[in-house]
Amino acid sequence: MSTATLATAAEHLVASLPVPGLRVLGEVGAEAVVGPADAVVVSASLVGPQPADLVLVVLDARFVAEAGGGPDASATVVLRPAFERAAAVLGDGVVSELADGDGTGLLSDPQDAAFFEISDGTAPFGWLAVRRAPTGATGVRGPLPGAGSAFDGRLRRIQDVEMALTVEIGRTRMSIREALSLEPGAVVELDRSAGAPVDVLLNGRRIALGEVVVVDQDYAVRISRILDTADGRP
Q1: CATH number of 165-232
Q2: What is the DSSP-derived secondary structure letter of residue 141?
């Protein structure tokens, strides 16, 4: 897993955060990750043929309450879409439940991890730490020998776990002011033309395209195309 791939994952995560104007300044050393005791730290792991760990450190988490609908909003819930998008760049697999704190130990043991600084344009917003997949016997980063069959065995253990299937007809972006001005009867234009196929997402990841139909007075979706891994990434 190259440094360029890790940097792209960081950019995808930042682009998915509900905070405008953020950007990745670049890779920094582990010693650059500093912050107050009340900084928000959230971590997750990508479970798959090329496993990876991610830790996000946020210095100012006021956006969590705004994006989550109130002061009781959970940072792990608000940040999950961003982690999902970053993990989609790193490879196939399933993103674990997000945890408060550095559950993977990247901050205390930064060996084999890359750190990227996130800025709001005037000051540090936070940092993203990504630990690469283990190094194989050949010295090339990738799955260890036999990891494919081992992963298949682990995957069978969770194949009956239910996941959320969502149909998305389109998206749009708006400022907080525009969102607060919404009233019954308002029309919100989406980035999808009429008649275009809708996205079918499994646990937040696009896996297929389809068309909306009606079956016994209920909405349904007819699958028109199953997407490849690259096509399914946001």
Answers
A1: 2.30.330.10
A2: B
